[in-house]
Write a structure and sequence with these properties.
This protein is mainly alpha-helical and 162 residues long. The chain contains 5 helices and no strands. The structure holds fe (ii) ion (2 copies).
Length: 162
C-alpha cells in the first residue's frame, strides 16, 4: 500500500494493479447514463483492451511460472477456463454495437465473471505463489517488458484502423 506511488515491479503487484484498474472501470460503468451509448462503448472498449493485455500476460508468463511453483493444477486449470469464457464475452462485445439490447447485460456478466476470477487469484493463487521461492521481481521485469511490446502492438493496430 505504502508503495502505491512507485511503479509496481513485482509480478503480483503488477497484476493486482491491473485488477484494481478494471474493477474501478466496471464500477464506473454502472454509474454511466444508460442512454449514453457512446460513453458506454468507449469504456467497454478500454476495459476489453486492458483485459486482453492482462490475460495474455498471465497466460504467457505468470500462469506457467505459477504452475511450476505451486502444486495446484486444478486452480490453474480453472483460471485458464475462466479466461476462455471471459475472452468469449469480450469477443461478443467487440462485435456488438452500443445500442444492442444485450450490450449492457453482456458487459455486466463479464464484470461478474472478472470479479469472481480476481477474487480467486488474489485470495488463493497469489498467496500460494508468494509462499514459494519463485523470483517475483524477475518475473515482474519480464512481464513489464512483454507488456510494453503488447501495448506497442495495440497502438499499431489502432493506427491501421484509423
Ligand atoms: Fe486471470
Ligand atoms: Fe488476473
Amino acid at each position: 500500500m505504502a508503495k502505491s506511488k512507485a511503479q509496481a515491479t513485482g509480478a503480483v503487484e503488477i497484476l493486482r494493479e491491473q485488477h484494481d484498474k478494471v474493477k474501478k472501470a466496471f464500477k464506473q460503468f454502472e454509474k454511466l447514463d444508460r442512454e449514453d451509448t457512446e460513453a458506454q462503448q468507449q469504456l467497454v472498449q478500454t476495459v476489453c483492451e486492458d483485459l486482453k493485455l492482462h490475460t495474455t500476460l498471465e497466460e504467457e508468463l505468470f500462469y506457467p511460472a505459477a504452475r511450476e511453483a505451486i502444486d495446484d493444477e486444478d486452480l490453474l486449470n480453472e483460471a485458464q477456463v475462466e479466461h476462455e469464457t471471459a475472452k468469449m464475452l469480450i469477443e461478443q462485445l467487440e462485435n456488438m454495437s452500443g445500442d444492442d439490447p444485450n450490450f449492457h447485460a453482456t458487459f455486466t456478466v463479464l464484470g461478474e465473471y472478472v470479479l469472481h476470477h480476481v477474487k480467486e487469484e488474489e485470495g488463493e493463487m497469489f498467496p500460494q505463489v508468494q509462499e514459494t521461492d519463485l523470483d517475483l521481481e524477475e518475473l515482474g521485469t519480464r512481464m513489464r517488458s512483454r507488456m510494453q511490446e503488447l501495448m506497442g502492438e495495440i497502438e499499431e493496430e489502432e493506427k491501421e484502423r484509423s
